User: Fold this.
Amino acid sequence: MSEVDPNPSFRELLARPVDLLAFGFGSGLSPWAPGTAGTLAAAAIWLALPAPPLPLAILLICAASAAGIWICGRSAARLSGGDRPGIVWDEFAGCWITLALIPAGWYWVPAGLLLFRLLDIFKPWPIKWLDRNIGGGLGIMLDDVVAGIMAALCIQSIRLLAL
Assistant:
């Protein structure tokens, strides 16, 4: 069995743009909870920019997700480690899905992010099935995309029940 290469350094990420994106601009290099670090970096980017209209947000997220299939697949293959914890572009896409689809109001943001992370960590059905049965860049991306959608749907359900 081949040994998994260690994470690249930030300097190496800067030299390889695909790895820089896959590792979430360096957030995936966090030695503690790289998925959470990636989610927080993605949220900071999303929240720092002006909120796009929903159709444009969906278009941007679809483009980021489609590109992520190639980005994550290419980086994982080059680093010979499959879906490594440091590859967090999938967390970026899932986080952005959640943030684009939750209700307006600052209090929904931490709730959405927490729920997204819980779904991504514990992987209830169908997330676990996708994670285990679909490989490559598509598999890396798909479980987080579904977790993002599920988190947004749960938050919307909570909002409806609270009314």
